[in-house]
């Protein structure tokens, strides 16, 4: 079989498709929990509770200071000796989301801090209560800063998920590796996997561009400008 | 000056011997002051004299360490969880405008009336358009803050405060961040409101404005009131050397 047809066969094979699905699932689930963990940490840091602060410092120190690969193996192989038995998929998700949470927390904190103190003061002076200030003034503006880098984290996570192959989760890279080791056609198997990875990242980058446009309020502005052009146009026809 | 100079004065704010420290730095060293209804007070003084802190105490953005502040005769306190109710009655305009960047001019104005007072959106929009006309930029209703000049932003900020229908307006150096050609458009709006009877306290260095618009002038230095006089007295009569020196500095630069 020539290389091209084998690549095509792999890309459309059920095993590769399943592997790609698994990669996407790992990415989305881990990112989701990573965001939850990051949000919790950011809120705790905002509240400035001393005791919890230390817990978070240790957490950040551990997850930023060790390789993700180490963390995955740790969760899968060491936690069972403490009576915590997780499937390989769950281990992967736990390690990836805890690792991700450490970075997301930082992104969220930067987002919240990007909204100047004066905005809080102005909202407070308008008789808003604390939660209203958060809900209507701080969060909408912080999200514009938070969302674009979270898009980057998604792409990063897609690539990190390949590490989970080390605990035998049947994700894309492991599938490709297994296919190649049976017939030594690494070029074809890895190309097929690469096509999936690039497909995902390309689609996502496209989505991300739209999200960023939305985040700076571009859509609302464009819509408004279009409406005002139409308005001017209709006024002109009326004059005629 | 306000045309209405009837002698029956009612004070909206009465402050007695208020003190405020940030850490070991005492910023307000026993300030006593009345703000009369339907009058305009200008507070002037060198930077660091405590002017801004003083008016931030009035709407409870700062909590005083000792002393008493009465708003319409009842004591108010920044530690009270109902502090927001006091702020309903007091508008504030800031040096850096602080319009909410994710909202258009119109949305900036209707936000607090709708979420705080629960006014319906249509009604709030009507009021907001009226106010935008009052501050002379109705055509900018759908502009975002970063599409407006500083002077326009500040006028929207004034409209935003007015939308809560406050009894008292506080202006914290409203023109200090503006280019010279925009100062007048903002001061004109403040003057107009003042002449319509809005009780106002304006922290500013614009002494021409003070002379034209203020009923009283308070001069502060090092956390104390050095001078508290009617505008005529302040500009024509005898004032302290410290105030004189300050006036000369800012008038001749």
Any overview of this molecule?
The complex is a heterodimer of chains A (240) and B (253). Chain A is mainly alpha-helical. Chain A is built from ten helices and no strands. Chain A has a single domain (3-239), classed as MetI-like fold (Orthogonal Bundle), CATH 1.10.3720. Chain A has helices spanning 3-11, 14-47, 50-65, 68-77, 88-114, 117-125, 130-160, 172-183, 186-215, 218-239. The longest helix of chain A is centred in the first third of the chain and has 34 residues, at 14-47. The mean pLDDT of chain A is 89. In chain B, helix 3 crosses helix 4 (121-134), helix 4 (121-134) crosses helix 5 and helix 5 (150-162) runs parallel beside helix 6. With 253 residues, chain B is an alpha/beta fold. The longest helix of chain B is centred in the last third of the chain and has 16 residues, at 180-195. The A-B interface holds A 116, 118-119, 121-129, 132, 136-137, 140-141, 144, 217, 221, 224, 228 and B 59, 61, 84-85, 87-88, 90-92, 94, 96, 98-102, 104, 111-112, 115-116, 142, 144, 157, 160-161, 164.
């Amino acid at each position: 079989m020539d290389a091209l047809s084998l690549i095509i066969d792999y890309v459309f094979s059920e095993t590769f498709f399943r592997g790609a699905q698994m990669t996407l699932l790992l990415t989305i689930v881990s990112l989701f929990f990573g965001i939850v963990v990051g949000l919790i940490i950011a809120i705790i840091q905002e509240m400035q509770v001393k005791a919890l602060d230390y817990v978070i410092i240790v957490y950040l120190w551990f997850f930023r200071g060790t390789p993700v690969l180490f963390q995955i193996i740790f969760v899968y192989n060491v936690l069972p000796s403490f009576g915590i038995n997780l499937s390989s998929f769950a281990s992967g998700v736990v390690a990836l989301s805890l690792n991700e949470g450490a970075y997301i927390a930082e992104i969220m904190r930067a987002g919240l801090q990007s909204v100047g103190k004066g905005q809080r003061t102005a909202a407070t002076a308008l008789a808003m209560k604390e939660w209203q200030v958060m809900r209507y003034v701080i969060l909408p503006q912080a999200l514009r800063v938070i969302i674009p880098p979270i898009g980057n984290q998604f792409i990063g996570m897609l690539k990190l998920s390949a590490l989970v192959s080390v605990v035998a989760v049947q994700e894309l890279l492991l599938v490709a590796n297994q296919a190649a080791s049976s017939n030594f056609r690494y070029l074809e198997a890895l190309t097929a996997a690469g096509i999936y990875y690039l497909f995902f990242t390309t689609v996502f980058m496209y989505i991300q561009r739209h999200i960023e446009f939305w985040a700076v309020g571009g859509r609302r502005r464009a819509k408004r400008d279009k409406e005002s052009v139409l308005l001017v146009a209709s006024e002109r026809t009326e004059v005629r | 000056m306000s045309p209405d100079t009837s002698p029956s004065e009612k004070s909206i704010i009465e402050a007695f011997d208020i003190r405020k420290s940030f850490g070991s730095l005492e910023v307000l060293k026993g300030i006593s002051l009345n703000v009369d209804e339907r009058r305009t007070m200008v507070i002037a003084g060198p930077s660091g004299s405590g002017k801004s802190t003083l008016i931030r105490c009035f709407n409870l953005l700062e909590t005083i360490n000792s002393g008493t502040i009465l708003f319409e005769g009842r004591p108010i306190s920044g530690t009270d969880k109902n502090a927001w109710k006091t702020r309903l009655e007091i508008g504030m305009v800031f040096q850096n405008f602080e319009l909410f960047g994710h909202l258009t001019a119109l949305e900036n104005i209707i936000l607090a009336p709708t979420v705080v007072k629960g006014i319906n959106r249509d009604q709030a929009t009507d009021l907001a358009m009226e106010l935008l006309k009052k501050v002379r930029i109705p055509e900018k209703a759908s502009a975002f803050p970063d599409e407006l000049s500083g002077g326009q932003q500040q006028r929207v900020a004034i409209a935003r405060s007015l939308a809560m229908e406050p009894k008292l307006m506080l202006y914290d150096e409203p023109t200090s961040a503006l280019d010279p050609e925009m100062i007048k458009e903002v001061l004109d709006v403040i003057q107009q409101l003042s002449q319509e009877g809005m009780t106002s306290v304006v922290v500013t260095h614009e002494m021409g404005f003070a002379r034209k618009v203020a009923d009283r002038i308070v001069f502060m230095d090092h956390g104390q009131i050095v001078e508290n006089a009617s505008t005529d007295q302040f500009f024509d009569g005898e004032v302290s050397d410290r105030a004189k020196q300050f006036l000369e500095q800012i008038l001749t630069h």
